[in-house]
């Protein structure tokens, strides 16, 4: 039997297991809809994130960290991030060489805002494949509802409401890959998924999940290649590359994934996935915008690696809806939603007719109902649209800091300076006495890494050892060490709890 005969037999068997679904060609009058949805989302995201930055609502941990990494690439030094420690290589924290893609743009516009605009574009463009699939299979109304449902989902709101993160590169790659899976374009699905291994070390397992889906539903050779490539890449990064570049000589987050000092009890593993109740709430909220229908799609297999490590972790920060951890799941959930509805329309009887008809209005209603509980609700408040005098005062004080100065800054002030100064966080992990300048927000400190009282005491200590106040306005205080003077090294400050888990 020839190879071509085997391939034909495999193709016939697969088609018999799952009949192909013919999608309607896109009408010329409606083919712009996916891109119109993406453009709308981009404008909303860009305004929201940049405005937060202008109002001093972004932070050194994490926007400042990633800008220092991108700036390092742009200047040919590699991603050295002083905010995490002297000479700290960001590739030893998380394996994210994809950040280097922003370096050419940073040459043209060296600003933290560049990272925010890039994030807005990458997250928005992920709506294109999802809404385009919905357009072909369900029509223009569905394309708009599902595209905006994805774009306004709480997982993206939580991510965009907390600075910039490397996973922004993963969101469109996953969206294009999962929609290709749904349309049975196996090579395209794996091609879109493969670069995920350059975004973060755990995403190789997501690539393996894409391969497993292809192995199960389609081409065995392509699927097996995806599984081997994804697992191999994650193992290489976790066991070789990250330890080689980490200051500690090992992956820094093993403890978060170990299940505690005693490890995991296999007998209680199912219970560990849903307790405490915060875990179950997160899973239900993931499915809620699809009125739970996404769970009927086999595409949800691709979400299992990310959900698995989060729910089995011993770090509570991973269990809930905060931060950026759910952003990579939203395109999977909405692609699964499209998959279920397209199959229901093509075959009939898969879902009760009333369920199919009610699904889109219900999805829109749930999306709107969840909005007030997450970061996008800030768009509807007056605070985001006006600039307080305190913010104007901060800009004026920061303008007095010379370029290339070494400065210790309060966490909220760090990303206002990382494009032109050598910045460390005031209080941790490096000693503020190694900096020539200090700038703090004494009236409204974030409370991390130092409590408000501790921050005030540290400022008083800096004054006692010779730092002089240059300017102070609305609680934004700028101090300078007089040139040519030596300042005693500040005592160690206890390591604080991180504002998020990495």
Question: What's the topology here?
Answer:
Layout: H1 3-17, H2 33-54, H3 60-74, H4 103-108, H5 112-125, H6 127-138, H7 140-151, H8 154-160, H9 170-182, H10 186-193, H11 203-217, H12 220-245, H13 254-257, H14 269-272, H15 277-287, H16 304-312, H17 330-347, H18 353-370, H19 389-398, E1 406-409, E2 422-425, E3 437-441, H20 452-464, E4 468-473, E5 476-480
Parallel strand pairs: 1-2, 1-3
Antiparallel strand pairs: 3-5, 4-5
Helix pairs in contact: 2-5, 2-6, 2-7, 6-7, 6-9, 6-17, 7-17, 7-18, 9-10, 9-11, 9-17, 10-11, 11-12
Low-pLDDT residue intervals, each spanning 5 or more residues: 1-17
| Helix fraction by DSSP (H/I, runs of at least 4) | 40-55%
Beta-strand residue percentage: under 5%
How many domains?
2
Order of helices and strands: HHHHHHHHHHHHHHHHHHHEEEHEE
The helix-and-strand class reads mainly alpha
Biggest β-sheet strands, sense, barrel: 5 strands, mixed
Number of helices: 20
Query: Would you count the extended β strands for me?
Result: 5
- Tell me the strand order in the biggest sheet: 2-1-3-5-4
Please state the average pLDDT score.
89
Span from first to last CA? 53 Å
Estimate the global geometry from the Cα principal axes: globular
Gyration radius (Cα, Å) is 25 Å
Could you name the key traits of this structure?
mainly alpha, Rossmann fold, 2 domains, 20 helices, DUF2079 domain-containing protein, transmembrane, transmembrane helix, membrane
């Amino acid at each position: 039997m020839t190879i071509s005969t085997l391939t034909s037999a495999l193709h016939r068997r697969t088609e018999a297991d799952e009949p192909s679904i013919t999608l309607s060609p896109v009408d010329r009058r409606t083919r712009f809809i996916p891109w119109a949805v993406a453009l709308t989302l981009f404008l909303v995201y860009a305004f929201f994130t940049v405005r937060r930055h202008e109002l001093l609502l972004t932070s050194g941990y994490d926007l400042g960290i990633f800008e220092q990494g991108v700036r390092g690439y742009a200047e040919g030094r590699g991603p050295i991030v002083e905010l995490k420690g002297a000479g700290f290589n960001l590739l030893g924290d998380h394996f994210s060489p994809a950040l280097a893609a922003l370096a050419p743009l940073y040459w043209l516009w060296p600003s933290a805002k560049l990272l925010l605009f890039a994030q807005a574009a990458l997250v928005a463009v992920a709506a294109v494949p999802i809404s385009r699939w919905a357009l072909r299979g369900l029509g223009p109304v569905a394309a708009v509802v599902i595209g905006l449902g994805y774009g306004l989902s709480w997982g993206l709101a939580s991510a965009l409401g907390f600075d910039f993160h490397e996973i922004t590169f993963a969101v469109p790659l996953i969206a294009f890959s999962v929609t290709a899976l749904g349309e049975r374009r196996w090579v395209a699905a794996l091609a879109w998924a493969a670069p995920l291994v350059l975004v973060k070390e755990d995403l190789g397992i997501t690539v393996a999940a894409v391969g497993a889906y292809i192995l199960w539903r389609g081409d065995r050779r392509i699927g097996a290649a995806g599984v081997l490539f994804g697992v191999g890449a994650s193992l290489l990064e976790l066991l070789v590359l990250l330890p080689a570049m980490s200051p500690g000589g090992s992956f820094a987050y093993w403890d978060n994934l170990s299940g505690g000092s005693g490890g995991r009890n296999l007998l209680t593993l199912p219970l560990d996935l849903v307790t405490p109740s915060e875990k179950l709430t997160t899973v239900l909220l993931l499915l809620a915008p699809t009125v739970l229908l996404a769970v009927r799609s086999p595409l949800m297999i691709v979400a299992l690696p990310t959900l698995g490590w989060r729910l089995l972790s011993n770090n509570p920060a991973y269990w809930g809806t905060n931060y950026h951890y759910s952003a990579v799941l939203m395109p999977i959930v909405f692609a699964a939603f499209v998959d279920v509805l397209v199959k229901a329309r093509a075959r009939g009887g898969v879902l009760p007719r009333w369920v199919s008809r009610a699904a889109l209005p219900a999805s829109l209603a749930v999306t709107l109902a969840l909005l007030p509980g997450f970061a996008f609700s800030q768009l509807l408040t007056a605070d985001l649209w006006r600039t307080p005098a305190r913010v104007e005062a901060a800009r004026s004080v920061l303008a007095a800091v010379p370029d290339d100065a070494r400065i210790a800054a309060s966490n909220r002030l760090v990303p206002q300076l990382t494009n032109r100064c050598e910045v460390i966080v005031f209080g941790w992990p490096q000693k503020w006495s190694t900096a020539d300048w200090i700038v703090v927000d004494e009236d409204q400190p974030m409370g991390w890494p130092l409590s408000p009282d501790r921050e005030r005491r540290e400022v008083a200590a800096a004054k006692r050892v010779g730092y002089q106040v240059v300017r102070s306005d609305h609680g934004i205080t700028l101090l300078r060490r007089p040139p040519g003077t030596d300042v005693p090294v500040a005592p160690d400050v206890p390591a604080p709890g991180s504002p998020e888990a990495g």
